[in-house]
């Protein structure tokens, strides 16, 4: 068996073409990535600026934490480049006996080896010293901004052309003069400064700077005390003392005080105002005065950092140390300690001013004022109305009194004959008795006993006549409406006394039966007499043609009321007239005026009483007056 092998020969051009196709295929199969995006991302990466922020005590350690916060925020706001801000904190400074720095240096070295930051920003003096000391090992050639360093603590010997210093200047004299300015009576200042090496340095500085105040101001130092002890002392300070809050990083007991918790605790218990020259301690706890401004220091720091990151040489960026900003005060503290605003320096600013109550509750107060005004208007309107009503009442009573007076005249006019008769009787007796006595005296032996008897009769008759005149005068007296406490039985008796003679003249039996009890009421006796008089005269008029001629008057007590009844034996009233007898000008008499009962009703109602008219079942009319009894 024979087989033939076929050899396929491949030409070189065919191999080249295959490679070309493979490359083309691969090129088209790789996921698409826009060329522009790659370029942009790389450009952005090249632009990224790495910022190392080194804290002295801790990231939340006041006052530095507030500067760091402000610097970072401002840097991010101003930077045209993306930023990678890395923060580290130097813990050694917060211990009274700092430990070795070497491990921390090694740590930073391993982190930044081969990838140095674009700029180092140190916050506070300990951090500045650290970066200066380890510059060669950690960040050779990296520009540095040493900020928030008190000018006395700047290590000028180790400054290079690659450094910018943003120094601040603590002016303790200005801070203490501020205390004396706003509280001139201050005799003693308790100085709160901690016990760390840095704080001890400041104690010496404060002592040195305040030498000129010796004799004027006594200083008490709290650096050897635990913070708990400081709280105790701060709560029981003698008068004319102020507290000066310098720094409280670490107390004598070795306790570290971050943030402003310690200051807040002291503020809560202190019996004296607290002053501080650091803005981060202002706003709720300290009175204020000249202070370091966080904004000013951060603005300068960020300004320098941006210029350096933009390529400018640090050597060309120089700042003078920053002093205190114009004084600021907390209005709430001024109020609390009774510090007058007139004592503040002229360029000072007062913050946290609480708006006055009327501004806080403007709408509520306006509403209340409006309600009060409306209410006041209503009340005065009502008072005015009441006044007018009272006036009208007085006026109407006066008119009533006048009308009643006229009515009395007309009523008594009818009785003139009987009154004359009543007067004539005693006067006639007096005359007869006088003549008899005269005759007896002419005799030779006059009977003196008889004459004495005659004289007694004369006196009695004279008194009777006087009584008639007195009664007449009293009823005809023109008096205003006068309320008094009266006994109603007596008042009715007086009225009957006036008409008794009339009744006798008309041969009418007039009986009066008062209740055997006091009927004390409030009223005008003359007017009430007039009412009774009117009812009796009407009753006598009604029985003028009747066979049985009797008028009975009696009083009775009904519950809390006194009742006067006038009953006659006349024909009574027509059923249709019963409802009208009290109407003015209602009369059935040819000569009648029709005002008697209308006036009687008005008088009784003015006494808060009632008057009613009914017909008796056995015939005749019955008029009943009811008046409230006095309690
Ligand atoms: P005048 O006596 O001038 O008529 P009054 O107001 O005193 O006015 O009386 C009104 C009317 O009431 C009388 O005209 C009479 O018709 C009626 N009247 C009053 N008292 C009696 C009475 N005792 N009996 C019957 N009618 C009476």
Instruction: Give the C-alpha Rg.
Output: 60 Å
Strand content: 15-25%
Number of strands: 19
Based on Cα principal axes, name the global outline: rod-shaped
Give me the side-by-side strand order of the main sheet: 2-1-3-4-5
| Low-confidence regions | 1-10, 20-40
The name of the CATH architecture of the largest domain is 2-Layer Sandwich
CATH superfamily of the largest domain: Histidine kinase-like ATPase, C-terminal domain
Terminal Cα span:
161 Å
Roughly what is the average pLDDT, rounded to an integer?
88
CATH class of the largest domain: Alpha Beta
Bound molecules: adenosine-5'-diphosphate
A few lines on this structure:
It is built from 19 helices and 19 strands. It is an alpha/beta fold and 631 residues long.
Write the layout of secondary structure elements.
Layout: H1 12-29, H2 35-47, E1 49-55, H3 64-78, E2 83-89, H4 102-112, E3 119-123, H5 125-133, H6 135-138, E4 144-150, E5 163-168, H7 172-182, E6 188-193, H8 197-209, E7 218-221, H9 227-235, E8 241-247, H10 261-269, E9 274-275, E10 288-291, H11 294-309, E11 325-330, H12 331-336, E12 349-351, H13 357-360, H14 362-414, H15 416-442, H16 448-476, E13 484-487, H17 488-505, E14 509-513, E15 520-523, H18 525-542, E16 550-558, E17 561-568, H19 596-606, E18 610-615, E19 621-628
Helix pairs in contact: 3-11, 9-10, 14-18, 14-19, 15-16, 15-17, 17-18, 18-19
The structure holds adenosine-5'-diphosphate (ADP).
The site of adenosine-5'-diphosphate (ADP) has 21 residues, from helix 18 and helix 19.
């Amino acid at each position: 068996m024979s087989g033939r092998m076929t050899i396929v020969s491949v030409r070189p051009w065919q191999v080249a073409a295959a490679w070309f196709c493979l490359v083309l295929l691969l090129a088209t199969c790789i996921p698409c990535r826009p060329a522009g995006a790659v370029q942009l991302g790389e450009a952005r990466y090249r632009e990224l600026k790495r910022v190392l922020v080194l804290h002295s005590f801790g990231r939340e350690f006041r006052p530095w934490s507030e500067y760091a916060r402000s610097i970072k925020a401002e840097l991010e706001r101003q930077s045209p480049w993306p930023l990678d801000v890395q923060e580290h904190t130097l813990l050694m400074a917060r211990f009274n006996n700092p430990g070795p720095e070497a491990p921390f240096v090694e740590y930073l070295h391993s982190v930044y080896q081969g990838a140095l930051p674009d700029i180092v920003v140190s916050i506070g003096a300990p951090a500045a010293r650290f970066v200066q000391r380890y510059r060669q090992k950690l960040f050779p050639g990296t520009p540095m901004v040493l900020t928030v360093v008190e000018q006395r603590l700047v290590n000028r010997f180790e400054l290079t052309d690659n450094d910018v210093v943003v120094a601040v200047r603590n002016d303790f004299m200005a801070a203490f003069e501020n205390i004396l300015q706003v509280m001139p009576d201050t005799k003693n200042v308790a100085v709160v400064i901690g016990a760390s090496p840095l704080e001890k340095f400041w104690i010496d500085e404060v002592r040195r700077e305040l030498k000129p105040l010796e004799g004027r101001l006594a200083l008490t130092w709290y650096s050897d005390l635990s913070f708990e002890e400081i709280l105790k002392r701060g709560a029981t300070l003698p008068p004319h003392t102020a507290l000066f809050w310098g720094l409280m990083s670490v107390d004598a007991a070795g306790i570290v005080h971050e943030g402003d918790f310690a200051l807040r605790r002291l503020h809560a218990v202190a019996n004296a105002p607290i002053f501080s020259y650091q803005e981060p301690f202002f706003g709720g706890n300290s009175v204020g005065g000249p202070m370091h401004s966080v904004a000013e220091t951060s603005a300068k720091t960020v300004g320098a950092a941006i210029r350096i990151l933009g390529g400018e040489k640090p050597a060309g960026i120089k700042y003078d140390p920053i002093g205190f900003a114009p004084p600021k005060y907390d209005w709430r503290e001024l109020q609390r300690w009774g510090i007058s605003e007139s004592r503040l320096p002229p360029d000072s600013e007062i913050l946290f001013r609480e708006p006055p109550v009327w501004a806080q509750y403007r709408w509520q107060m306006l509403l209340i004022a409006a309600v009060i005004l409306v209410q006041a208007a209503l009340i005065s309107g009502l008072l005015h109305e009441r006044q007018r009503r009272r006036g009208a009442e007085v006026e109407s009573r006066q008119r009533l009194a006048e009308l009643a007076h006229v009515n009395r005249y007309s009523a008594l006019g009818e009785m003139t004959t009987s009154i004359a008769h009543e007067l004539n009787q005693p006067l006639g007796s007096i005359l007869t008795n006088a003549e008899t006595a005269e005759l007896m005296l002419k005799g030779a032996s006059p009977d003196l006993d008889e004459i004495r008897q005659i004289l007694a009769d004369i006196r009695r008759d004279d008194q009777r006549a006087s009584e008639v005149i007195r009664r007449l005068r009293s009823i005809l007296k023109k008096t205003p409406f006068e309320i008094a406490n009266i006994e109603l039985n007596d008042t009715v008796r007086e009225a009957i006394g006036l008409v008794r003679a009339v009744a006798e003249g008309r041969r009418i039996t007039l009986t009066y039966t008062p209740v055997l009890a006091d009927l004390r009421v409030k009223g005008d006796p003359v007017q009430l007499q007039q009412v009774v008089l009117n009812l009796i005269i009407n009753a006598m008029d009604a029985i003028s043609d009747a066979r049985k001629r009797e008028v009975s008057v009696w009083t009775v007590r009904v519950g809390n009321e006194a009742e006067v009844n006038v009953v006659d034996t006349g024909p009574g009233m027509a059923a249709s007239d019963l409802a009208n007898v009290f109407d003015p000008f209602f009369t059935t008499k040819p000569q009648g005026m029709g005002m008697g009962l209308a006036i009687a009703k008005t008088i009784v109602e003015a006494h808060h009483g009632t008057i009613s008219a009914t017909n008796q079942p056995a015939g005749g009319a019955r008029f009943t007056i009811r008046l409230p009894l006095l309690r």
